[in-house]
Amino acid sequence: MQSTAQPERVAKLDPGVVSSTLPNGEIVLLHLDTRKYYSLNRTGAIVWKLIECSTPLVDISQALFDQFDVTPESAGETVRDLMQELKTHKLITFTESESRTQNS
Amino acid sequence: MHYSLCDLPFRVVCLPASREAAVARILENLFSPTRVRRPDSCPGIEIVIDGSTEPPVSGELVFDAPGLSAIRTKRGYYLRSRESFLAIDPCAGRAEGSLSDDFLISPLEEQRGLFLFALLLLLSGRGLYGLHAASISSDGCGFLLVGDSGSGKTTLTCALSRCGWQYLSDDSVLLTRGASGIEALALGTPFHCSPAAFRHFPELAIGMPAPFSGKRLVDPGPVYSGQFRSRCRPQVLLFPEIIDEPYSRLIPLDCTATLLRLVGAGAGLLNSREFMAAQMAVLGDLAKTARGFLLLHGADVHRDPHRLSALLQKEGDRIDAIHRAA
Lengths: 104, 326
Known about the structure:
A: alpha+beta; globular; B: 21 strands
């Protein structure tokens, strides 16, 4: 068995974004530089909270799979689509996180 | 000159002092600050009019309208109106600049923009955030009418004032955290009346020179006597839209739609980036504690304002009961 270090993709919040979590579980975001504002539904809000905790993308997909009645592929697609949209609006950037040791 | 504005010590310095009277007239007519003889603390905000020459300014032009432009600079904002200017440092709570002779004798409507934006920027650094909204109250229940120009804020404020409601403002309020939650504070009392508003509410036109066009500032105090309130606790947030129907109606909004609309109204105002996060937190708390509605207002605003008044009071009573139970 051999150990390899796999860099993990992590989304990072843009420092110019502030958020407000509402009692219905949704989140409203305001970008202080562009002054544009957005809302995230409950699923998006769960993803946003995980991004705030620097959770690797692969673990965010796993969290959605665990919490909702969806396939792993569907959870992964949901996360990818949302990440792309958040990036387009300059709400997040991507970084490579600390490596995770994987046995092969 | 020392004032108290929204409970904050507010100092105005004029050099030469001969301009003091003209500047005091503008500020007192527009914002009704309370004169203070001996301030018991350092000024919370300060405006210094010193007649200096206009400095070279570099930055981003963030607002450009007839009669007022704003440049975002390293230290804050630079506001310009005609040949007058104010450099605003919101962190220091200080504005400094010069007013031209033309500016000092121009109509109040043309003087308002420069001072309103200056004060909004200065006050945002002291935890008071501007919102483009009218504010009224009934039986202690505060209502905000949040909307752009032309959405009917003045019309609704006048119609409900006629029905005996209390008013704070027909155009803009300050939001702040009070002991019992988010509070709305009045910033200036004059109503912004269009020719149409004067037609519908002729009591406001008494003493006004005619004919006129555009919006005029009118002191509603003598007309709706004893109905001014300096603050209220907003429990109902109304987003007015004019409809071509006989009767007004309310459509409930969820808290997300409510906050998005509040942020839209708040983010549009000039504001310093460093204070916008705190402003967002205040708007978020407001959206969580007050109930939002789309107010589609029809012809009954003019024909039967008491019907609209009853509709709103019923909702206010219901929400007040929920808050009391909680």
